[in-house]
Every structure is written in C-alpha cells, then in structure tokens.
Amino acid sequence: MAAEAGQPAPKSEAPAEKKDQGDQKKGAKDQSKAPAAVVAASEGGEKKLSNAELKKKAKEEKAARRAAAKVTQPQPPASAPGQGDSAKGGKSKPKQDGPQAGAQHGKTPAPRSAAPMTAAAPKEAKPSVPECFSHLAMAKGVNLTHADKDVHPAVLLLGQQMSTMAISDSTTRLEATLLAFKKLLSLEHTSNKRLQNQVIDSYTTPHGTTLSRHFTSHVLNPQIVYLTACRPMCFSMGNAIRWLKLQISKIDIDMADSDAKKLLCEAIDSFIHERITLADLVIVNTAADMIAQDDVILTYAHHHLVERALLKAKASGKRFKVILVDDPFERVGLDHVKKLAAAGIPVAYSPDFGALRTNLQESTTVLVAAEAMFSNGAMYARAGTCDVATAAFDLGMRVTSLCETINFTERVSIDSLTYNEIDPERNTDEEFRLLFDTTRDKSISAVVTELGICSAKSVPAILRKLEEL
Amino acid sequence: MSESEAAIAQPVSTELPLRTQPDDSTFDIVATYRDLLASDPDLTKPVAAIESLIALLNTVPSTTVYETLDTVKSHSDLLIASVENPLPLQAGTDLFLQYLVASLKQQDGSFDAVRQHLLRNGRLFASRAIAARNGIAEAGWRFVREGKCVLTHGASRSVTGLLERAAKNSEGKFRVVYVRDEVRAEESDRVVKELRSKGIPVAEIPEAAVAHVMGLLRQVHMVFTGAEAVTQNGGIISRIGTYQIAKLAAQAKIPFYVAAETHKFVRKFPLDQRDIGYQQEVLDFSATAPSKQPKDAVDYTPPELISNLVTENGVHLPGYVFEQLLDIYGSLNG
Q1: pTM above 0.80?
Q2: Distance between CA B152 and CA B132 in Å, rounded?
Q3: What CATH number did the domain enclosing A305 receive?
Q4: What percent of chain B has pLDDT over 90?
Q5: Could you give the CA distance from residue A386 to residue A370 in angstroms, rounded to a whole number?
Q6: Is the Cβ–Cβ distance between B222 and B254 less than 8 Å?
Q7: Tell me: the pLDDT tens digits for A6-17?
Q8: Could you tell me which residues of chain A have a Cβ less than 8 Å from any Cβ in chain B?
Q9: What is the pLDDT of residue B124?
Q10: ipTM above 0.90?
Q11: Residue of A398, A453, A465 with shortest CB distance to B272
Q12: Going by C-beta distance under 8 Å and a sequence separation of 6 or more, which residues neighbour residue A246?
C-alpha cells in the first residue's frame, strides 16, 4: 500500500555542505544552507580582526564572489531557466548549489530534470510571459550583492530561502518573517559587532525622531521591499505586516527606545503564539476530532496542518485509512506518506490525478489545507486542490479545508488568474505553470479555523470579527 | 420519576468529567425539565432547559461564581445526556451559560446581583421566547400573500403562529397544503384543525404526494417549516422528512423558508446526514421482525436548500446564523 517509488537521491550533497558550514553559522537556521554560506562567510572572520582588516577581507570576498559568479554564469539555465535574467549580476557559487539542488532534484527527480534539458538549448532567450499574464508575479530571488544595504542579514537570508522555495507555505513564511523582523529590533549588540561595517546593526532610533515615526519608513520598508522582490508576499504576510505597522504607529512617542523595542518584540511573540502556534493546535485538534472511525480520508500533496491532524487522530486511537494524491509537479507527498505509514496509518499513494475519481469513490472525506481564503469564500491553495475539491463535490463528498484566520484576506477572487504566482522552475517560452489555484466556495463543505468550523460563505463574518478584536 | 432518574443519572455521572459532584443531589434537573415541557405547551426545548437551570439556581445556596458555573455546567451535561437529540438543549444551556458569564462580566463579578436578577425574573426567558415567536410571525407573515399556497409539515408553533398572523390580515385568501405524518396522526389532526379554525383552507396530503403536488404548476408557492435547532452554517436539524421536502422544493424551484427563533441557534456544524450530533438508528435491518423506527427522528437540511430564515430579528440568509453565534460566543469552539 504505502509509497515507495522515486527516492530523493541527491540529498547527499546537502549534509556535506552543511558540515563545512556547521562551525561557522551559529544563529542561522539549519534549513538555510546556501544563503547562510554567504552570510556566514562574511560573518566567519576571526573576532580578533580589526575593522580595517575586516573591510579589506570583505572586499576580497566580494571580488572572489564576483569572479566565481562569472565562472558560473553560463550555468544558471541548467538549474533554473526562469532565473536567468535575475542572475545577470552573477550569483555566488554556494547559492547555486544549495537548496536549489536539494529542493529541485531531490524532491522530483523525473519531471524536473527533464524540463531544464529542453530549456537549456535556447538558453539566452529570456522566458517571456504573455501580456495577459504579465500581472502574475514570480519568485525571482535577488542577488545578495544587489540587495539594499539596509537589509538585515536575517532578512537577507530569509529572502533567499523564500526565493528558492526552501520556505514555501504561507504560515511558515509568515512566522519566519516575523522572527526576522524581531531580530531587527533585538537588543543584543554584542554578537553583531563585527558586522557593523557592512550591514545595519539592530535598530537604534536616530536623534531628532522617534521610533514610531522612523522605524516603519526607514527600516521596515526596505526589508519588505527586498522580501517582496525575492518572492511576492503571501496574504498572511500582508496581514501581519499591516498589523505590525499599526503596532509601531501606536507606540507612544515619549517612550524610551529600549522599552518600545521590548514592547514590539513581545507583541510579535504573542502574535506568533496566538495566531500561529495556538491556532495550529486548535485547528489540528478540531480536524482530528472530525475524523470518524473507519473513515477513508483523501488528501492532496502535503501540508503540515493536514499531516498533524492525521497523526493526531491516529494517536487518539482512531482507525482510518488515507489516500494521498500527490502533486505531480512536486512530489511533496512522498515524505508525508512515509510519516503516515510509520505512524501506522494505512496509506494508499497516487502520484498524480490518474484515477482521481476512483480514489474519491473509495474515500469518505477530503481533507486539504488552504494557502489563503478570499472573502467570497474561495479557497486559494496549491495548484490541483481545486481539481480534487470539485471532483469530490461532484460526488457529494465532504471537502474540509484547514486554514488559520491569519490567512484570510478581504480580497475577492473568482478565478485562479487574478492572484497567482508563476512557478519559477517551470517557466519557459512555450509554457509556464502556476503555483496555486482557486476553489469556489460551493465545493467546500467546511473550513476549520482556530475560531471554529465555519462554512466557506462565513469567511467575511470571521474577517469582520477579527477586525473587532 | 425516581427509577428513571436512577437509570439516567447512574451511567451519566460516571462518564462526565465532573470536577466536583454537585452537593445538591436532591435537585433533579431532568425531572424539572420534563415537568416544564409537559406543563407548558408553549415552551420550546431550549427555553425549557434554560428554565430548569434557573430553577436549579433557585435551589443551590449562593456560593462562589466558579462553583455556581460549575454546577450549572454539570447539570447542563446531565440534562443533555438524558435526551436523545442533544442539540436543542445544547442551544439553551450554552446560551444560558454565556448569559451568566456575560452578565457577571458586566456586573464586575458581583454574582449575587446577577442571581437575584435571574430569580426575580424567573420567567424572563420563557416570556422572551413567546415574544420571539410573535416576532417571527410579524417578520414573516408578509410572505404569505393573497392567492398564495403554503406547504408545511410537522407541528412547529412558529409556523402555525405565522400562518395565523397572515390569516388575521387576509382571512381565507391563501391556502395551506399540510403534509400528514401517519405515524403521528393525532398531531397532524390537531394542527390541521387549528389552522382550519382560523379560516384557512387546508389540503392534507400524504408524504408520498409531495413531489407530485410540487410538480403541479403553481399550486404550491412556498414551503414553511420549523426547526428543532439551527446549526452554525445555517442548516437546520428538524423532524425527519424535512430534508426530502427541501430537496424536492429546490428541484421545483420553490422557495423554502424556515421559521425559527434565534435561541435555537446552536454551535454545531454538521457536514451531512451522518453528522446530526448523535447516533440515530434509522436503518434497522431484519429478515424476520418488522424494522423499528426511532421516536422523534430528525434529519439535517443543509443551508443550500434554505432560501431564508425567518427569525424574530427579521428575515435573513442562512449565513446570518454564523455571524450571530460569533457575536454571542466570540469563538465557536464549544
């Protein structure tokens, strides 16, 4: 029953790389192999070096990177044809080989290696998106050397992770963004001393102005611009940034800098706790409760909420089966299926939409997770979710979607083209792929949020409620 | 009553997570509830549950806020466990608990004031419920205009109230098709008699004739039914047979109206027929004996089939329920 095929083979690169960085990066997260290399390299200098020496060293490194980039420049199409144009300035070596190698070749061996092959021939031709789709954005990635000098290293790192899709789902991106912003405000100066000459230190308000007036425009905005350039923001990030700006503007202008920073850090912490950590917990518990004995649950690709809900239901002693239909373009379900099988849940794995209808006829419930919910009740989720939901609705089945309310947006969408993103790895002259699709409210039976279960039509009611809070 | 009490209280008290056993073991909430329901035909189940909880507060001595809330909670659980279909009662007990908490917040925790207020206005909820029924009639009677024909079934007091209000205005100028329930012939006779006494021409049809009658062009203009509970997505839990009438009405493009008081709104989200809040054995397979049917069986009518909810606050779309519940409870996790 359980899945076997398509092992992610070339994972082996990653650990090796990790090892030689291991001693250097301390604060950096471990998912962040490649971009960390750049930061870590600059960070890695010995403490004893004087400022002047450091400067010199940084210059040398920059030169070395440029040289390396020139060497590697002909290569980019091999890994990501879509990034050819943005890589003009030259990408540093480690960035090329890092998470991209892991993410692309690791997860989906077959389709990905095929695509670049065909695209490699007309290499220089810039993939053009037809006029009518020109409004769609794409994760491009911004070269580190091109980034605004005001961008904080933590944000630089995050931007790279986002552009390479190392961090891809909306809630994780949101959490990482907020944590990075917190570092902007962090009070620890000691560890950053050696970075002072090239990147901004944690923030101190200049004389003659106040934090509430200065921080947003001069410090926060460049970070946001950079992150947006790396990959278009998701709705939850938009919501959270609006919230953060509001909090900043509310700060009393007479408040001491350190107090204000502390206040903001605490606000961010509690925001993450309430809107993400606790929300996830409640959603997972509610969804697990909804699973009945002997259910057969069909789910699509992978989302951490669905995974946690299934594992939770299993742990609470329920007996049920899972049919996992994977995203044919990105086999994120493989690991998921293994985890479920390891937990003792009988899983059937289907690598694509072949036999979707048959699979649906054998199941009792469809459980998916949303990337965002529009206020007309439409669900914005991984491309393919709409197919599953519509087919399930057609068969009169329940379609349950899991979503934190931070992902709710007051915008309205009735199609999949108004808001979407182009898959940066599948964007050629002939064709491109979209990352998301929109499911109409009528094919969704219930949306599980931390405020409870609601119907898709009730999204505006929740948004109104959230505004009151 | 003592033996039924023992039968009910015994298994229940073992499985309920009671923090403290209620020390007022003399008070029998289940019996009180049943007495109330039997003595007053105007009382709906949620309101009867609220009234019994007020009666409970009457008997327990004034203690701390948390102890009282605890007592109310444990008795609510007892009461809910004593009936088959928990949803109508849950609507009442949840509402009462929320009312208690909210009024305690307003009064800055002065519990005695709240308690005194409740006891002094013991019939407050009941009278409000009756007022709500009149409100429904006022809000909805204009749907029933001259020359129209209304199809209804069951014995909802909201619906009969609404029809009577309409009859006051245009006596004999609209007609009613009543779907008889042969299992409850007595009840059907009573309702039909009541309607005829107000001068409303009534045609009785068997359940099997509903589709046919709806197919007779422009013979039926709308359907009105009541509900036992209105779920948070705007669907209804109601007498079995409602769902099929709603489906047939949707098929025939006949508007389907539900007359229900807002105190019937309950924090339950059924996804389909499997999910009505309790185990109901409608299917009784047997090769020899005749099948048994549950008494007071219900079904779930999803919001897509409901054109409007007629409440004392006016006529609303099914989505209204969610907003109201969110307003009252803040969150929807029970």
Answers
A1: no
A2: 20
A3: 3.40.50.10470
A4: 50
A5: 11
A6: yes
A7: 444 444 444 444
A8: 282, 286, 290, 292, 398, 400, 442, 445-446, 450-455, 457-458, 461-462, 464-465
A9: 79
A10: no
A11: A398
A12: none
